[in-house]
Amino acid sequence: MNPDVQESTFFLALRRMRAPLITLILIYAVSVLGLTLIPGIDAEGQPTRMSFFHAFYFISYTATTIGFGEIPNAFSESQRLWIILCIYLSVIGWAYSIGALLALLQDRNFQNAVRVQRFNRVVRRLREPFYLVCGYGETGQLICRALDQLGMRAVVVEVDEARVSQLDLHGHSADIPALAADARQPEILKLAGLTHRCCLGVIALTNDDNANLAIAIATRLLAPELPALCRAETAETATNMASFGTRHIINPFDKFGRYLALALNAPAAYHLLEWLTGVPGTPVVPHRDPPRGHWLLCGYGRFGKAMVSALEQEGVPVTIIDHDPPPDDAQRHWVRGDGTGVPALLEAGVRNAVGIAACTCEDMSNLSIVVTARELNPELFVVLRQNLQANQALFDAFESDFTVVPSKIIARECLAILTTPLLAPFLWQIKQRGESWASTLLDQLTERFGWQAPTVWSVRVDAGQSPALLNWLTQSHREAALGDLLRDPHDRSRELACRVLYLKREDGSAAMLPHRHTAIQAGDQLLFVGRAVACGALELTLNNENALDYVLRGREIPGGWVWERLARLHGGPAQSSGGTKTNRAIARSP
To answer: Across residues 516-530, what is the average pLDDT?
Structure first.
């Protein structure tokens, strides 16, 4: 436990209880002193005085229970008179102390101190890897839910107490330590585990760019070895974060602008990107490609600026509808007004436009804009911004071509970086290879795996993720071809339902769509796409020496120490003769 947190709570309690404790001590001291000074009478009628021990013992139980008996002798009248006074004094003292204690327990500062102390204790006791998530809004909830489903722990810091109190209601399989505090404070980040040896990284997802920038700076200075994934909605903040060496800066509006530009320029590449980054198992419905021609844009905020920049880079003419067009921007076509009204849309040329983007920060305004525009031009290609997840039912009811949800864009990007770090360079290569190459690859993958979003995962040939394969390559000095690794460990005549998209060597070289005869080396990183069952089967092959020996050489090695000893006594394991799946003696832990 952090000593500063523990001491602050302890001394806060002492400060608040100082007067009641002093009062009780004085009452007990005066009461004990009085009993020792007032003379009594023993059983033989002789004068006697009570010792300090007997006086303290009598006052201890009398002050709390008022009754047990007069010891060691019956009291004199003067002693009984003194005891009556002590009883009333002790009742008043305890009532005052208990009232002060109840007030202390209800004090917000003390409650916060206890909460911080409990949170710090839980974080310090974590013995498994976790991510520090700053901000538990819609994006943070999506991230924590996805991490929980992947079996990863998270620690949350959120400034809004109401959101923190709702965390337990979200049904996570593992407890998520959470603290209602300002993540901009470095001490709060340290309490939340920034410098903890099990912390894997920091994810800054607050809706305040300045807070995210402060988190990025604190991470860079206090834990420079940790990756930081930070949300930034302005170019200035992103530039400032980059200057501090922040590795991953995510601007949802800029990201979607690039997606739209890619969809305009290379539709197949965009569909391939959407298919690879979708939630596994969910259907990916190929939508119509965004058309080239005259576009309308309603709302020139952060998202609107990103959209205009993306469209103009592709040479698409844009008319902007906004309440306050800048007077010095004569290069663009502006219409002053509200996109929810028919006059402004008609003035902007909605009947001859091919697409419209509703980019305001109000969900109801965006829905009103696109509904009105579709009535005037039913063929419009619609890009619709959704700000709040709570309005999902309304957006589902309207069939837009693109629904932009910033929280989902950020969550998807963060998860791709955390779970499949090789996906980002592969997606960059997709954009560089051109439309024809992307279209061919998309047809190959969807023909084999269908249009449901596949499982995408990364594997590194090291002791942590591939111990059996690493042992095969380093200690046995043997080679392993990529195609052989992708055999079913239950029946090597069948191939696993997966494909390698990207291979990165330890020396920095990389290969797109490596051939099945490619020799695997220690330290290689591989990006796979396929079905979840193939991911589990490949994990078995990479971790189980018996399964690996079977898929590479077709040998059935008996599992277990006893069977392996018996096999050696009889001349070693026999060669497989192509039996059925039930005859395979693999997948047994030695």
So the answer is: 93
Tens digits of residue pLDDT in 315-371: 999 999 998 888 777 788 999 988 888 999 999 999 999 999 999 999 999 999 999
Q: How far apart are CA 534 and CA 298, in angstroms?
A: 46
Q: Are residues 261 and 396 in the same domain?
A: yes
| CB burial string 44-66: b at 16+ within 10 A, e below | eeeeeebeeebbbbbbeebbeee
Residue 296 has pLDDT above 70, yes or no: yes
Q: Could you tell me the two tokens for 51?
A: 């010792």
In the chain, the number of structural domains is 4
If pLDDT is split at 50, 70 and 90, which confidence band does 168 have? confident
Residue 182's Cβ-count burial label (10 Å; 0-12, 13-18, 19+) is middle
Q: In this structure, are 25 and 52 located in the same domain?
A: yes
**H helices then E strands: how many in the chain?**
24, 20
> Cα separation of 506 and 496, whole Å?
25
Same domain, 345 and 259: yes
pLDDT at position 6 is 52
Does residue 211 fall inside a structural domain? yes
What is the reported pLDDT for 576?
37
Domain extent, residue 130, equals: 126-250
φ, ψ for residue 151, nearest 5 deg? 80, 20
